[in-house]
Write a structure and sequence with these properties.
Helix content is 75%, strand content 0%. By secondary structure, the chain is mainly alpha-helical. Among the domains are: 103 residues, Serine Threonine Protein Phosphatase 5, Tetratricopeptide repeat (Alpha Horseshoe), CATH 1.25.40; 104 residues, Tetratricopeptide repeat domain (Serine Threonine Protein Phosphatase 5, Tetratricopeptide repeat, Alpha Horseshoe), CATH 1.25.40.
Protein backbone atom coordinates (compact mmCIF):
# COMPACT_ATOMS: atom_id res chain seq x y z
CA UNK A 1 0.00 0.00 0.00
CA UNK A 2 2.69 2.59 0.84
CA UNK A 3 4.38 1.80 -2.45
CA UNK A 4 1.14 2.50 -4.35
CA UNK A 5 0.67 5.85 -2.58
CA UNK A 6 4.28 6.86 -3.38
CA UNK A 7 3.86 5.91 -7.02
CA UNK A 8 0.67 7.98 -7.35
CA UNK A 9 2.37 11.00 -5.67
CA UNK A 10 5.35 10.82 -8.07
CA UNK A 11 3.05 10.65 -11.12
CA UNK A 12 1.11 13.69 -9.91
CA UNK A 13 4.36 15.68 -9.36
CA UNK A 14 5.57 14.87 -12.86
CA UNK A 15 2.22 15.91 -14.33
CA UNK A 16 2.31 19.30 -12.57
CA UNK A 17 5.88 19.94 -13.77
CA UNK A 18 4.88 19.19 -17.35
CA UNK A 19 1.94 21.60 -17.07
CA UNK A 20 4.21 24.31 -15.70
CA UNK A 21 6.75 23.95 -18.56
CA UNK A 22 3.92 23.98 -21.11
CA UNK A 23 2.51 27.20 -19.65
CA UNK A 24 5.92 28.90 -19.79
CA UNK A 25 6.42 27.82 -23.40
CA UNK A 26 2.97 29.13 -24.38
CA UNK A 27 3.64 32.47 -22.63
CA UNK A 28 7.05 32.81 -24.29
CA UNK A 29 5.60 32.10 -27.70
CA UNK A 30 2.88 34.66 -27.13
CA UNK A 31 5.40 37.34 -26.15
CA UNK A 32 7.56 36.49 -29.17
CA UNK A 33 4.59 36.75 -31.51
CA UNK A 34 3.62 40.08 -29.97
CA UNK A 35 7.19 41.38 -30.39
CA UNK A 36 7.28 40.22 -33.97
CA UNK A 37 4.08 42.09 -34.63
CA UNK A 38 5.54 45.36 -33.12
CA UNK A 39 7.32 47.48 -35.77
CA UNK A 40 9.11 50.84 -35.37
CA UNK A 41 6.64 53.69 -35.54
CA UNK A 42 8.34 55.65 -38.32
CA UNK A 43 5.97 58.57 -38.09
CA UNK A 44 6.45 59.14 -34.37
CA UNK A 45 10.17 58.46 -34.66
CA UNK A 46 10.61 61.00 -37.41
CA UNK A 47 8.65 63.67 -35.55
CA UNK A 48 10.78 63.27 -32.42
CA UNK A 49 14.01 63.05 -34.42
CA UNK A 50 13.19 66.26 -36.34
CA UNK A 51 12.52 68.05 -33.04
CA UNK A 52 15.99 66.99 -31.90
CA UNK A 53 17.60 68.36 -35.06
CA UNK A 54 15.78 71.70 -34.68
CA UNK A 55 16.78 71.92 -31.02
CA UNK A 56 20.42 71.24 -31.96
CA UNK A 57 20.31 73.97 -34.58
CA UNK A 58 18.95 76.39 -31.98
CA UNK A 59 21.65 75.44 -29.48
CA UNK A 60 19.19 73.83 -27.04
CA UNK A 61 21.26 70.73 -26.31
CA UNK A 62 19.25 69.30 -23.39
CA UNK A 63 16.04 69.58 -25.39
CA UNK A 64 17.74 67.86 -28.33
CA UNK A 65 18.92 64.96 -26.11
CA UNK A 66 15.37 64.51 -24.78
CA UNK A 67 13.94 64.50 -28.33
CA UNK A 68 16.47 61.93 -29.60
CA UNK A 69 15.76 59.75 -26.56
CA UNK A 70 12.05 59.87 -27.40
CA UNK A 71 12.82 58.99 -31.01
CA UNK A 72 14.82 55.98 -29.89
CA UNK A 73 11.81 54.72 -27.90
CA UNK A 74 10.04 54.33 -31.25
CA UNK A 75 13.11 52.91 -33.06
CA UNK A 76 15.85 51.78 -30.68
CA UNK A 77 18.06 50.54 -33.53
CA UNK A 78 18.24 53.82 -35.42
CA UNK A 79 21.96 54.63 -35.70
CA UNK A 80 21.35 58.24 -36.82
CA UNK A 81 19.53 59.01 -33.56
CA UNK A 82 22.19 57.16 -31.53
CA UNK A 83 24.96 59.16 -33.22
CA UNK A 84 23.11 62.47 -32.78
CA UNK A 85 22.38 61.86 -29.11
CA UNK A 86 25.95 60.64 -28.54
CA UNK A 87 27.33 63.83 -30.13
CA UNK A 88 25.19 65.95 -27.81
CA UNK A 89 26.26 63.93 -24.79
CA UNK A 90 29.88 64.46 -25.84
CA UNK A 91 29.36 68.22 -26.24
CA UNK A 92 27.73 68.31 -22.79
CA UNK A 93 30.77 66.57 -21.26
CA UNK A 94 28.98 63.30 -20.54
CA UNK A 95 31.58 61.10 -22.21
CA UNK A 96 30.41 57.83 -20.73
CA UNK A 97 26.94 58.12 -22.26
CA UNK A 98 28.40 59.43 -25.52
CA UNK A 99 30.66 56.41 -25.88
CA UNK A 100 27.78 54.04 -25.04
CA UNK A 101 25.67 55.54 -27.85
CA UNK A 102 28.48 55.39 -30.42
CA UNK A 103 29.33 51.79 -29.56
CA UNK A 104 25.67 50.77 -29.71
CA UNK A 105 25.44 52.35 -33.16
CA UNK A 106 28.50 50.36 -34.31
CA UNK A 107 27.11 47.11 -32.87
CA UNK A 108 23.77 47.73 -34.52
CA UNK A 109 25.24 48.54 -37.92
CA UNK A 110 28.94 47.58 -38.17
CA UNK A 111 29.23 48.83 -41.73
CA UNK A 112 28.19 52.39 -40.89
CA UNK A 113 31.32 54.52 -41.34
CA UNK A 114 29.73 57.62 -39.81
CA UNK A 115 29.41 55.82 -36.47
CA UNK A 116 33.16 55.10 -36.52
CA UNK A 117 33.79 58.76 -37.34
CA UNK A 118 31.60 59.78 -34.39
CA UNK A 119 33.49 57.47 -32.04
CA UNK A 120 36.77 58.84 -33.45
CA UNK A 121 35.61 62.31 -32.42
CA UNK A 122 34.94 60.94 -28.94
CA UNK A 123 38.46 59.47 -28.67
CA UNK A 124 39.97 62.75 -29.89
CA UNK A 125 38.09 64.64 -27.15
CA UNK A 126 39.26 62.03 -24.63
CA UNK A 127 42.88 62.62 -25.71
CA UNK A 128 43.26 59.11 -27.09
CA UNK A 129 44.68 59.92 -30.55
CA UNK A 130 45.76 56.36 -31.40
CA UNK A 131 42.20 55.03 -31.02
CA UNK A 132 40.82 58.08 -32.76
CA UNK A 133 43.17 57.49 -35.71
CA UNK A 134 42.04 53.89 -36.00
CA UNK A 135 38.34 54.85 -36.06
CA UNK A 136 38.84 57.65 -38.58
CA UNK A 137 40.76 55.30 -40.87
CA UNK A 138 37.91 52.76 -40.65
CA UNK A 139 35.40 55.49 -41.53
CA UNK A 140 37.46 56.56 -44.55
CA UNK A 141 37.84 52.93 -45.67
CA UNK A 142 34.03 52.68 -45.49
CA UNK A 143 33.88 55.55 -48.01
CA UNK A 144 32.94 58.37 -45.63
CA UNK A 145 34.35 61.30 -47.60
CA UNK A 146 33.64 64.31 -45.40
CA UNK A 147 35.76 67.29 -44.44
CA UNK A 148 35.14 66.60 -40.72
CA UNK A 149 36.52 63.07 -41.03
CA UNK A 150 39.74 64.12 -42.79
CA UNK A 151 40.12 67.00 -40.32
CA UNK A 152 39.66 64.58 -37.43
CA UNK A 153 42.21 62.16 -38.83
CA UNK A 154 44.60 65.06 -39.46
CA UNK A 155 44.28 66.10 -35.81
CA UNK A 156 44.99 62.52 -34.70
CA UNK A 157 48.01 62.27 -37.00
CA UNK A 158 49.33 65.56 -35.63
CA UNK A 159 48.83 64.35 -32.05
CA UNK A 160 50.80 61.17 -32.80
CA UNK A 161 53.76 63.07 -34.26
CA UNK A 162 53.00 62.71 -37.98
CA UNK A 163 52.79 66.32 -39.22
CA UNK A 164 53.43 65.60 -42.91
CA UNK A 165 50.64 63.02 -43.12
CA UNK A 166 48.42 65.40 -41.15
CA UNK A 167 49.20 68.15 -43.67
CA UNK A 168 47.95 65.92 -46.49
CA UNK A 169 44.69 65.14 -44.65
CA UNK A 170 43.98 68.78 -43.87
CA UNK A 171 44.56 69.65 -47.53
CA UNK A 172 42.02 66.97 -48.55
CA UNK A 173 39.56 68.36 -46.02
CA UNK A 174 39.97 71.87 -47.45
CA UNK A 175 39.32 70.62 -50.99
CA UNK A 176 36.10 68.96 -49.83
CA UNK A 177 34.83 72.18 -48.28
CA UNK A 178 36.60 75.48 -48.87
CA UNK A 179 34.56 77.51 -46.37
CA UNK A 180 35.29 75.42 -43.25
CA UNK A 181 37.77 77.20 -40.93
CA UNK A 182 38.78 74.01 -39.04
CA UNK A 183 41.06 72.36 -41.63
CA UNK A 184 42.85 75.67 -42.30
CA UNK A 185 43.67 75.92 -38.60
CA UNK A 186 44.75 72.27 -38.57
CA UNK A 187 46.97 72.69 -41.60
CA UNK A 188 48.51 75.76 -40.00
CA UNK A 189 49.36 73.67 -36.94
CA UNK A 190 50.92 70.98 -39.14
CA UNK A 191 53.01 73.60 -40.95
CA UNK A 192 54.10 75.00 -37.58
CA UNK A 193 55.18 71.51 -36.47
CA UNK A 194 57.25 71.29 -39.66
CA UNK A 195 58.96 74.60 -38.84
CA UNK A 196 57.20 76.52 -41.65
CA UNK A 197 56.04 79.37 -39.46
CA UNK A 198 55.28 81.95 -42.15
CA UNK A 199 53.20 79.44 -44.14
CA UNK A 200 51.41 78.50 -40.93
CA UNK A 201 50.47 82.14 -40.36
CA UNK A 202 48.98 82.22 -43.87
CA UNK A 203 46.66 79.31 -43.04
CA UNK A 204 45.70 80.81 -39.69
CA UNK A 205 44.81 84.00 -41.57
CA UNK A 206 42.48 82.00 -43.87
CA UNK A 207 40.92 80.29 -40.87
CA UNK A 208 40.22 83.62 -39.13
CA UNK A 209 38.88 85.11 -42.40
CA UNK A 210 36.26 82.36 -42.43
CA UNK A 211 35.52 82.66 -38.72
CA UNK A 212 36.51 86.06 -37.27
CA UNK A 213 35.74 84.95 -33.71
CA UNK A 214 37.86 81.78 -33.92
CA UNK A 215 39.66 82.05 -30.58
CA UNK A 216 41.91 78.99 -31.05
CA UNK A 217 43.14 80.23 -34.43
CA UNK A 218 44.25 83.51 -32.82
CA UNK A 219 46.17 81.57 -30.16
CA UNK A 220 47.87 79.32 -32.73
CA UNK A 221 48.81 82.29 -34.90
CA UNK A 222 50.29 84.01 -31.85
CA UNK A 223 52.45 80.94 -31.31
CA UNK A 224 53.74 81.18 -34.88
CA UNK A 225 54.48 84.90 -34.51
CA UNK A 226 56.40 84.13 -31.30
CA UNK A 227 58.49 81.52 -33.11
CA UNK A 228 59.46 84.25 -35.60
CA UNK A 229 60.29 86.69 -32.79
CA UNK A 230 57.36 88.97 -33.70
CA UNK A 231 56.21 89.34 -30.12
CA UNK A 232 54.07 92.45 -30.53
CA UNK A 233 51.91 90.72 -33.14
CA UNK A 234 51.75 87.68 -30.90
CA UNK A 235 50.57 89.88 -28.03
CA UNK A 236 47.86 91.40 -30.24
CA UNK A 237 46.55 87.96 -31.21
CA UNK A 238 46.54 86.71 -27.64
CA UNK A 239 44.70 89.81 -26.50
CA UNK A 240 42.15 89.19 -29.27
CA UNK A 241 41.71 85.61 -28.07
CA UNK A 242 41.22 86.77 -24.48
CA UNK A 243 38.69 89.35 -25.61
CA UNK A 244 36.71 86.44 -27.08
CA UNK A 245 37.22 84.24 -24.00
CA UNK A 246 38.66 85.80 -20.86
CA UNK A 247 38.95 82.34 -19.26
CA UNK A 248 41.39 80.98 -21.86
CA UNK A 249 44.24 79.94 -19.55
CA UNK A 250 46.55 78.95 -22.37
CA UNK A 251 46.21 82.38 -23.99
CA UNK A 252 46.73 84.14 -20.65
CA UNK A 253 49.83 82.12 -19.83
CA UNK A 254 51.24 82.63 -23.34
CA UNK A 255 50.61 86.37 -23.20
CA UNK A 256 52.51 86.53 -19.92
CA UNK A 257 55.50 84.84 -21.59
CA UNK A 258 55.28 87.17 -24.61
CA UNK A 259 55.14 90.22 -22.35
CA UNK A 260 58.25 88.99 -20.57
CA UNK A 261 59.97 88.87 -23.96
CA UNK A 262 58.84 92.43 -24.60
CA UNK A 263 60.30 93.56 -21.26
CA UNK A 264 56.91 94.33 -19.72
CA UNK A 265 57.50 92.34 -16.55
CA UNK A 266 54.69 93.86 -14.50
CA UNK A 267 52.11 93.07 -17.20
CA UNK A 268 53.53 89.56 -17.48
CA UNK A 269 53.25 89.15 -13.72
CA UNK A 270 49.62 90.30 -13.87
CA UNK A 271 48.87 87.69 -16.56
CA UNK A 272 50.48 84.87 -14.60
CA UNK A 273 48.64 85.94 -11.45
CA UNK A 274 45.36 86.07 -13.38
CA UNK A 275 45.97 82.56 -14.71
CA UNK A 276 46.71 81.28 -11.19
CA UNK A 277 43.53 82.90 -9.91
CA UNK A 278 41.55 80.99 -12.55
CA UNK A 279 43.34 77.68 -11.96
CA UNK A 280 45.20 77.51 -8.64
CA UNK A 281 45.84 73.78 -9.11
CA UNK A 282 48.25 74.16 -12.05
CA UNK A 283 51.82 73.69 -10.79
CA UNK A 284 53.24 74.98 -14.09
CA UNK A 285 51.71 78.41 -13.51
CA UNK A 286 53.44 78.72 -10.14
CA UNK A 287 56.73 77.68 -11.74
CA UNK A 288 56.58 80.32 -14.48
CA UNK A 289 55.58 83.07 -12.04
CA UNK A 290 58.26 81.89 -9.62
CA UNK A 291 60.87 82.17 -12.38
CA UNK A 292 59.77 85.74 -13.11
CA UNK A 293 59.90 86.66 -9.40
CA UNK A 294 63.45 85.26 -9.28
CA UNK A 295 64.51 87.31 -12.28
CA UNK A 296 63.05 90.40 -10.60
CA UNK A 297 65.11 89.50 -7.45
CA UNK A 298 61.92 89.01 -5.45
CA UNK A 299 63.39 85.87 -3.98
CA UNK A 300 60.99 85.20 -1.06
CA UNK A 301 57.98 85.39 -3.39
CA UNK A 302 59.76 83.16 -5.89
CA UNK A 303 60.38 80.59 -3.17
CA UNK A 304 56.70 80.67 -2.12
CA UNK A 305 55.55 79.94 -5.68
CA UNK A 306 58.02 77.11 -6.08
CA UNK A 307 57.06 75.59 -2.75
CA UNK A 308 53.44 75.60 -3.95
CA UNK A 309 54.50 73.93 -7.21
CA UNK A 310 56.17 71.14 -5.19
CA UNK A 311 53.01 70.71 -3.09
CA UNK A 312 50.83 70.51 -6.20
CA UNK A 313 53.14 68.20 -8.17
CA UNK A 314 55.45 66.36 -5.74
CA UNK A 315 56.64 63.93 -8.44
CA UNK A 316 57.86 66.66 -10.78
CA UNK A 317 61.68 66.91 -10.70
CA UNK A 318 61.62 70.37 -12.33
CA UNK A 319 59.68 71.74 -9.36
CA UNK A 320 62.45 70.60 -6.99
CA UNK A 321 65.15 71.97 -9.30
CA UNK A 322 63.39 75.34 -9.33
CA UNK A 323 62.85 75.42 -5.56
CA UNK A 324 66.49 74.46 -5.09
CA UNK A 325 67.40 77.47 -7.23
CA UNK A 326 65.42 79.73 -4.88
CA UNK A 327 67.19 78.30 -1.84
CA UNK A 328 70.56 78.98 -3.48
CA UNK A 329 69.53 82.55 -4.29
CA UNK A 330 68.66 83.02 -0.62
CA UNK A 331 72.02 81.54 0.44
CA UNK A 332 70.51 78.29 1.78
CA UNK A 333 72.77 76.07 -0.26
CA UNK A 334 72.29 72.87 1.75
CA UNK A 335 68.53 73.04 1.18
CA UNK A 336 69.18 73.70 -2.49
CA UNK A 337 71.38 70.62 -2.66
CA UNK A 338 68.71 68.49 -0.93
CA UNK A 339 66.05 69.56 -3.45
CA UNK A 340 68.26 68.84 -6.41
CA UNK A 341 69.17 65.45 -4.99
CA UNK A 342 65.42 64.74 -4.87
CA UNK A 343 65.18 65.74 -8.53
CA UNK A 344 67.92 63.25 -9.44
CA UNK A 345 66.12 60.54 -7.46
CA UNK A 346 62.85 61.23 -9.27
CA UNK A 347 64.42 61.17 -12.73
CA UNK A 348 67.90 59.70 -13.02
CA UNK A 349 67.77 60.20 -16.80
CA UNK A 350 67.30 63.97 -16.59
CA UNK A 351 70.39 65.86 -17.71
CA UNK A 352 68.90 68.99 -16.14
CA UNK A 353 68.64 67.29 -12.73
CA UNK A 354 72.29 66.17 -12.77
CA UNK A 355 73.39 69.60 -14.00
CA UNK A 356 71.39 71.33 -11.26
CA UNK A 357 72.86 69.18 -8.51
CA UNK A 358 76.33 69.66 -9.96
CA UNK A 359 75.67 73.39 -9.76
CA UNK A 360 74.66 72.99 -6.09
CA UNK A 361 77.83 71.09 -5.26
CA UNK A 362 79.79 73.83 -7.03
CA UNK A 363 78.20 76.49 -4.84
CA UNK A 364 79.25 74.54 -1.78
CA UNK A 365 82.81 74.26 -3.05
CA UNK A 366 82.48 70.47 -3.40
CA UNK A 367 84.09 70.44 -6.81
CA UNK A 368 84.79 66.72 -7.15
CA UNK A 369 81.14 65.85 -6.56
CA UNK A 370 80.14 68.69 -8.88
CA UNK A 371 82.37 67.31 -11.61
CA UNK A 372 80.94 63.80 -11.20
CA UNK A 373 77.35 65.05 -11.62
CA UNK A 374 78.19 67.33 -14.51
CA UNK A 375 79.93 64.51 -16.36
CA UNK A 376 76.73 62.45 -16.00
CA UNK A 377 74.75 65.38 -17.40
CA UNK A 378 77.19 65.55 -20.32
CA UNK A 379 76.69 61.87 -21.10
CA UNK A 380 72.92 62.36 -21.14
CA UNK A 381 73.09 65.58 -23.17
CA UNK A 382 76.43 65.72 -25.01
CA UNK A 383 75.45 68.74 -27.15
CA UNK A 384 74.80 71.03 -24.17
CA UNK A 385 77.58 73.63 -24.26
CA UNK A 386 76.66 75.16 -20.91
CA UNK A 387 77.08 71.84 -19.14
CA UNK A 388 80.41 71.31 -20.89
CA UNK A 389 81.59 74.77 -19.81
CA UNK A 390 80.59 74.26 -16.19
CA UNK A 391 82.19 70.80 -16.15
CA UNK A 392 85.41 72.38 -17.42
CA UNK A 393 85.23 74.96 -14.66
CA UNK A 394 84.66 72.27 -12.03
CA UNK A 395 87.58 70.25 -13.41
CA UNK A 396 89.83 73.31 -13.23
CA UNK A 397 88.84 73.86 -9.61
CA UNK A 398 89.54 70.23 -8.76
CA UNK A 399 93.01 70.60 -10.27
CA UNK A 400 93.50 73.88 -8.41
CA UNK A 401 92.41 72.25 -5.15
CA UNK A 402 94.89 69.44 -5.73
CA UNK A 403 97.70 71.95 -6.28
CA UNK A 404 96.63 73.95 -3.23
CA UNK A 405 96.55 70.87 -1.06
CA UNK A 406 100.03 69.91 -2.21
CA UNK A 407 101.33 73.47 -1.71
CA UNK A 408 99.72 73.70 1.72
CA UNK A 409 101.30 70.41 2.76
CA UNK A 410 104.71 71.59 1.55
CA UNK A 411 104.30 74.92 3.31
CA UNK A 412 103.25 73.21 6.53
CA UNK A 413 106.30 70.95 6.30
CA UNK A 414 108.53 74.00 5.72
CA UNK A 415 106.98 75.77 8.70
CA UNK A 416 107.56 72.72 10.88
CA UNK A 417 111.16 72.53 9.69
CA UNK A 418 111.69 76.22 10.48
CA UNK A 419 110.19 75.72 13.90
CA UNK A 420 112.45 72.75 14.60
CA UNK A 421 115.48 74.67 13.38
CA UNK A 422 114.56 77.63 15.59
CA UNK A 423 114.21 75.39 18.64
CA UNK A 424 117.54 73.72 17.91
CA UNK A 425 119.30 77.07 17.49
CA UNK A 426 117.87 78.55 20.69
CA UNK A 427 120.80 77.51 23.00
CA UNK A 428 123.35 78.85 20.54
CA UNK A 429 121.48 82.15 20.30
CA UNK A 430 121.47 82.40 24.10
CA UNK A 431 125.22 81.92 24.20
CA UNK A 432 125.68 84.60 21.59
CA UNK A 433 123.36 87.08 23.29
CA UNK A 434 126.30 89.14 24.46
CA UNK A 435 127.41 89.66 20.91
CA UNK A 436 124.27 89.76 18.75
CA UNK A 437 124.62 89.77 14.98
CA UNK A 438 122.19 90.38 12.08
CA UNK A 439 120.41 87.18 11.06
CA UNK A 440 119.94 86.21 7.47
CA UNK A 441 116.34 86.75 6.34
CA UNK A 442 114.22 83.62 6.06
CA UNK A 443 113.36 82.68 2.50
CA UNK A 444 109.89 83.65 1.32
CA UNK A 445 107.84 80.45 1.01
CA UNK A 446 106.32 79.65 -2.37
CA UNK A 447 102.87 81.13 -2.89
CA UNK A 448 100.11 78.56 -2.87
CA UNK A 449 97.46 78.65 -5.53
CA UNK A 450 94.59 80.98 -4.89
CA UNK A 451 91.35 79.77 -3.23
CA UNK A 452 88.77 78.08 -5.43
CA UNK A 453 86.18 80.36 -6.99
CA UNK A 454 82.65 79.77 -5.66
CA UNK A 455 79.92 79.48 -8.25
CA UNK A 456 77.26 82.19 -7.93
CA UNK A 457 73.72 81.19 -7.03
CA UNK A 458 71.75 80.55 -10.15
CA UNK A 459 68.47 79.39 -11.62
CA UNK A 460 67.96 75.74 -12.76
CA UNK A 461 69.53 76.25 -16.20
CA UNK A 462 71.41 79.55 -16.12
CA UNK A 463 73.58 81.06 -18.79
CA UNK A 464 77.13 80.60 -17.60
CA UNK A 465 80.54 82.04 -18.34
CA UNK A 466 83.18 79.91 -16.64
CA UNK A 467 85.50 81.67 -14.23
CA UNK A 468 89.04 80.85 -15.33
CA UNK A 469 91.77 81.00 -12.66
CA UNK A 470 95.05 82.56 -13.68
CA UNK A 471 97.64 79.94 -14.72
CA UNK A 472 100.52 79.26 -12.35
CA UNK A 473 103.03 80.16 -15.04
CA UNK A 474 101.63 83.65 -15.42
CA UNK A 475 101.26 85.27 -11.96
CA UNK A 476 99.98 88.84 -11.57
CA UNK A 477 102.40 91.60 -12.55
CA UNK A 478 102.82 92.56 -8.93
CA UNK A 479 102.68 89.17 -7.29
CA UNK A 480 101.60 89.35 -3.65
CA UNK A 481 104.23 88.40 -1.13
CA UNK A 482 104.28 87.23 2.47
CA UNK A 483 107.25 89.15 3.92
CA UNK A 484 107.54 87.49 7.34
CA UNK A 485 107.59 83.90 8.51
CA UNK A 486 104.84 84.70 11.03
CA UNK A 487 102.57 85.89 8.21
CA UNK A 488 103.41 82.82 6.15
CA UNK A 489 102.67 80.46 9.05
CA UNK A 490 99.27 82.00 9.82
CA UNK A 491 98.48 82.11 6.12
CA UNK A 492 99.39 78.43 5.69
CA UNK A 493 97.22 77.41 8.65
CA UNK A 494 94.36 79.56 7.32
CA UNK A 495 94.59 77.85 3.95
CA UNK A 496 94.55 74.45 5.62
CA UNK A 497 91.37 75.40 7.48
CA UNK A 498 89.82 76.47 4.16
CA UNK A 499 90.66 73.08 2.65
CA UNK A 500 89.04 71.40 5.66
CA UNK A 501 85.92 73.55 5.38
CA UNK A 502 86.62 75.26 8.74
CA UNK A 503 85.98 78.77 7.48
CA UNK A 504 85.56 80.53 10.84
CA UNK A 505 88.93 79.19 12.01
CA UNK A 506 90.40 80.26 8.67
CA UNK A 507 89.15 83.82 9.21
CA UNK A 508 90.86 83.95 12.61
CA UNK A 509 94.20 82.65 11.33
CA UNK A 510 94.18 84.96 8.32
CA UNK A 511 93.37 87.93 10.55
CA UNK A 512 96.56 87.17 12.50
CA UNK A 513 98.48 87.02 9.21
CA UNK A 514 97.13 90.47 8.26
CA UNK A 515 97.99 91.84 11.68
CA UNK A 516 101.59 90.84 11.03
CA UNK A 517 101.56 92.08 7.42
CA UNK A 518 98.66 94.47 6.66
CA UNK A 519 99.63 94.85 3.01
CA UNK A 520 99.38 91.23 1.79
CA UNK A 521 96.76 90.98 -1.00
CA UNK A 522 97.00 87.17 -1.10
CA UNK A 523 95.84 87.00 2.52
CA UNK A 524 92.97 89.44 1.93
CA UNK A 525 91.83 87.30 -1.00
CA UNK A 526 91.98 84.11 1.08
CA UNK A 527 90.07 85.67 4.00
CA UNK A 528 87.53 87.11 1.58
CA UNK A 529 86.96 83.60 0.26
CA UNK A 530 86.38 82.30 3.81
CA UNK A 531 83.91 85.13 4.46
CA UNK A 532 82.15 84.23 1.22
CA UNK A 533 81.71 80.61 2.34
CA UNK A 534 80.27 81.90 5.62
CA UNK A 535 77.78 84.00 3.58
CA UNK A 536 79.22 87.18 5.11
CA UNK A 537 79.13 88.85 1.72
CA UNK A 538 79.77 92.44 2.80
CA UNK A 539 82.98 91.49 4.62
CA UNK A 540 84.02 89.24 1.72
CA UNK A 541 83.60 92.09 -0.78
CA UNK A 542 85.57 94.45 1.50
CA UNK A 543 88.49 92.00 1.61
CA UNK A 544 88.44 91.48 -2.16
CA UNK A 545 88.33 95.27 -2.57
CA UNK A 546 91.48 95.57 -0.48
CA UNK A 547 93.24 92.77 -2.38
CA UNK A 548 92.47 94.52 -5.68
CA UNK A 549 93.54 97.88 -4.29
CA UNK A 550 96.91 96.39 -3.32
CA UNK A 551 97.23 94.49 -6.60
CA UNK A 552 95.05 95.87 -9.43
CA UNK A 553 95.98 92.91 -11.68
CA UNK A 554 94.87 90.26 -9.21
CA UNK A 555 92.72 88.09 -11.50
CA UNK A 556 91.43 85.68 -8.88
CA UNK A 557 90.36 88.48 -6.55
CA UNK A 558 88.17 89.90 -9.34
CA UNK A 559 86.65 86.46 -9.94
CA UNK A 560 85.96 85.92 -6.25
CA UNK A 561 84.49 89.40 -5.85
CA UNK A 562 82.20 88.64 -8.82
CA UNK A 563 80.90 85.60 -6.96
CA UNK A 564 80.38 87.57 -3.75
CA UNK A 565 78.60 90.39 -5.56
CA UNK A 566 76.33 87.95 -7.37
CA UNK A 567 75.47 86.20 -4.09
CA UNK A 568 74.70 89.61 -2.56
CA UNK A 569 72.34 90.43 -5.44
CA UNK A 570 74.63 92.77 -7.39
CA UNK A 571 74.43 91.09 -10.79
CA UNK A 572 75.71 94.13 -12.68
CA UNK A 573 78.81 94.48 -10.49
CA UNK A 574 79.42 90.73 -10.74
CA UNK A 575 79.34 90.89 -14.53
CA UNK A 576 81.83 93.77 -14.53
CA UNK A 577 84.24 91.88 -12.26
CA UNK A 578 83.94 88.71 -14.33
CA UNK A 579 84.70 90.67 -17.51
CA UNK A 580 87.75 92.22 -15.86
CA UNK A 581 88.97 88.80 -14.72
CA UNK A 582 88.62 87.41 -18.24
CA UNK A 583 90.50 90.38 -19.69
CA UNK A 584 93.37 89.90 -17.25
CA UNK A 585 93.46 86.18 -17.94
CA UNK A 586 93.54 86.71 -21.71
CA UNK A 587 96.27 89.33 -21.31
CA UNK A 588 98.34 86.98 -19.16
CA UNK A 589 97.96 84.19 -21.70
CA UNK A 590 99.38 86.24 -24.61
Amino acid sequence: MPDLIAARHGARTRFLALCRHAAIAILTAAVSLQAADVKPDRKKFQAAYDRGVRADQAGRRDEAIAAYSEALEFDSANVAALRARGADYLAAGNREKALADFEEAIRTQPGDGQSYAARGAYYSAANEPVRALRDYETAINLKVERTEVYTGRGDALLATGQPQAALDDFTKAIKLRLDNPEPYKGRGMALFALGKYRDAIGDFDLSIDRKPDYEQAFVERALAYSALGEYRRAQEDLSAALALNAEDLRALRMRGAVRERLGDDEAALADYTGAIRRDPSDARLFLVRGALYARLKRYPESLQDREQAVRLDPRNPEAYIARGGSYHLLGEHEKGLADRTTAVTLDANSALAWEARGDAYFLLGRFREALSDLEKAQRLEPENKEVAALAGEARANVETADREQKAAAEEAANAAARQAAAEKAAPVEAQQAAAPQRAEPLPVPPQPAEPPVPRPAAEPAPSRTPARPAPASAPPATAPSLPTSETADHHARGRQFIQQGKFQEAVQELALALKATPGAPLVYNARGFAFLQLKRYREAIADFDQAIKLNPNYTNAYTNRAAARRAAGDGKGAAQDQAKARALFDKAGK
